[in-house]
Amino acid sequence: MTQYLLSVIEPDGPMPAPDVMARIDRDVTAVDSDMRTSGVWVFSNGLLPPSSATVLRPGDGEVLVTDGPFAEGKEHLGGFSIVDVPDLDAALEWGRRLALATTLPIEVRPFRG
Which residue in 35, 42, 67, 97 is deepest, having the highest Cβ count within 10 Å? Predict the structure, then answer.
């Protein structure tokens, strides 16, 4: 079994309308439940907005602390799931289901080792 990170790529900007968000929450909860039932779920969670981030940058033996995201962009990491599956095809299938549930792009990436 290999662990994969399923990253939810979220656009910057306002949240969807409440009725749309309710449908997305319902669909994501169903995929999460299926992951748990099938035994592939390791961990998942959503993230607060990029403005809540703090970046630590090493240099000259010191660490500079700055508020805000590492990189400014039109999209950011909005949440993630970690699955433990037999192969890339299985990870891609869970990623496909998560993309349909979130209505957002999902990046699928294996962990080292």
Answer: 35
Q: In whole angstroms, what is the distance from residue 110 CA to residue 63 CA?
A: 29
CA-closest candidate to residue 111, choices 42, 53, 31? 42
At 5-50, the pLDDT tens digits run: 999 999 998 989 999 999 999 999 999 999 999 999 999 999 999 9
CA 3, CA 81: separation in Å to the nearest integer?
Answer: 10
Q: Which residue has the tokens 């699928």?
A: 108
Q: How is residue 68 written in tokens? A: 């805000």
Residue with tokens 């950011």: 76
HSE-up of residue 59 (Cα within 13 Å, Cβ side) = 5
